[in-house]
Amino acid sequence: MSRSTSLVAWAIAALVVLVLLANTLFVVEQRQEAIVLRFGQPERVIHTPGKGGAGLNFKEPFVENVVKFDRRNQALEADQEEVIDGDQERLVVDAFLRYRISNPLQYYTTLRDEHTAQDRLERLVNSSLRQVLGSSTTADIISGRRDQLMQQSKADVARRAKESQLGIEVIDLRIKRVDLPAANQASVYRRMQTQRQQIAAQTRAQGEQQKREIFAAADKEVAITLANAQEQGETTRGQGDAQRTRIFAQAYGKDPSFAAFYRSMQAYEASLAQGDTTMILSPDSAFFKYFEQGPNPGGAAAKR
Fold it and tell me: How many helices (H) and strands (E) does the chain have?
């Protein structure tokens, strides 16, 4: 055998060995799990949750092949779904699902590949949302009981997935957004505007009523206060007049002539204080006796 023929034989042998090694050895990463198939039928599972097996592995060449799956949490963005809620309102719901493969063998047997799994899970999520949200009000879906409804829908999806032997574990189910269909938005906004206008009108009416009650109470309080003040003032003036009369009576009793003189002076002041009073009286009128005789007319007459 020539040297060239020997080199060709060695090259062929090396190629055969490489092909055998390529069909015998395979690597399972830490984030993966694998199913070894023998003639298309599952033979064994490598690196299942809680068990080892990551790294270099062997299989029978040309007889067995390997299908690998991602063992990390996976996200499913469900298509927007139109749902009719308990108020008979049409809502467009946008949801997402997070799950992981808990049983690779069941997953492969039931779903085969990721594309089929995504389609199956999306239909499962949409069906569950229609069932759960269909018996709830719009207010509950938007804010009131949203978390509770999502937990209920998550439990429903997990139950259905288990019954269907999908081999997955549901981690979370959430609604990202809830919108009104474009055809319904205008009518819903008009209804909301009408409701707000009714609430505003009712609030204004209540405020107007409260304002009138406050004004009426204030007017009543003013009238009562003025009446009490007037009554107190009249009482005080009456008491003052009585005291003045009593003082005058006491003073008049002590000196009647001075009292007569004082009353005459008051009469002069009342009659002549303006300066433009015209009086026609007899010269011997008693009104002017103090102008002639002074404050003691009786004494002057006695002297004469």
Answer: 9, 9
- With tokens 């997935």, the residue in question is 161
* CB-CB contact of 76 with 69 (8 Å): no
- Output the CA–CA distances (angstroms, integers) from residue 166 to 38, 59, 208, 223, 246, in the order listed: 22, 26, 65, 84, 115
Closest CA to 71 of 45, 96, 39: 45
Query: What range defines the domain where residue 58 resides?
Result: 3-70
Find all residues with CB under 8 Å of 177, minimum gap 6, and list them: 93, 94
Assess whether 150 and 78 both reside in one domain: yes
* Whether 107 and 66 share a structural domain: no
Q: Which residues contact 269 (CB under 8 A, 6 or more apart)?
A: none
Structure confidence by residue, pLDDT tens digits, 156-189 = 999 999 999 999 999 999 988 887 776 666 766 7
SS3 172: strand
Residue 41: inside a domain: yes
Q: Are the beta carbons of 47 and 33 closer than 8 angstroms?
A: yes
Question: What is the helix (H) or strand (E) element at residue 93, kind and residue range?
Answer: strand 90-101
* Cβ atoms of 104 and 113 closer than 8 Å: no
Rounded Cα gap, residues 69 and 103, in angstroms:
11
Lowest mean pLDDT among 89-103, 162-176, 182-196, 231-245: 182-196
The predicted structure's pLDDT at residue 142: 76
Region of 39 (left: φ > 0; alpha: ψ -120 to 50; beta: rest) is left
Q: Report how many domains make up the chain.
A: 2
Rounded Cα gap, residues 257 and 295, in angstroms: 8
Assess if residue 245 is contained within a domain. no
Question: pTM score > 0.70 for this model?
Answer: no
CB atoms within 10 A of CB 171: 14
Q: How far apart are CA 253 and CA 58, in angstroms?
A: 144
